Amino acid sequence: MRKGVGALGVLGLTVIVVGVFRRYRRWHLRWGATDDEVRRTLPGDELVPAPHFAPTRAITIDAPPEAVWPWLAQLGYGRAGWYSYDLLDNIGHGRSAEEIRPELLGLHAGDWIPMGPVVNEEAAWVVDRIDPPQSMVWAKPASTWVWQLEELPEGRTRLITRIRLRHRLRITLIPELFLMEFGDFWMMRKELRSIRERAERETAAAALAA
Q1: Pair 112, 9 in one domain
Q2: What pLDDT is stored for residue 94 in this prediction?
Q3: Range of the domain at 150
Q4: What is the dihedral of CA 189, 191, 192, 198, to 10 degrees?
Q5: 140 or 11, which is more confident?
Q6: Is the dihedral of CA 20, 18, 30, 200 positive or negative?
Q7: Nearest Cα to Cα of residue 68 among 163, 149, 135, 131
Q8: Can you give the pTM of this predicted structure?
């Protein structure tokens, strides 16, 4: 009898955990994004067909695209950082930039966007295409990361970002799944909010100076 009750308890707990995870996953895979933004095709989607992991996140920024773009163009380890949790993102090498650095803004297709000190096609992104101040696509052999800026009324911007990833190696599947499902979102949310904060601060300062 006790074994039966115990089995039912485990089954019930499993159902609850799965249900909670499904709700969490739906929330984090589309944080801030509308139904249209989740469904629509973005630049670079064709590079990774049928991805295993494809979150679309978005945020509205009270600044025009021209004021948001520089913060995206200087992203990267050893560049302006990632504007997220610096101890993790920058591997302890300083804080992410609080200012725009003109020397980092001349980005072109084919340039590297390092994730860390090692720069190769597995450990860094390559700029696949760039159309300032509207969109930028980064690529790796089995993944892409797009940044899309859309102008809104009253000098605002909609920033949409999407990662598309296909798992390739079984040996890296578990750590990759854990990182994407439980680590990626919290870093991305912090990053988007920090970009918004920086762009809005600079825009407000420019307006005040004018």
Answers
A1: no
A2: 81
A3: 32-209
A4: 140
A5: 140
A6: positive
A7: 149
A8: 0.83
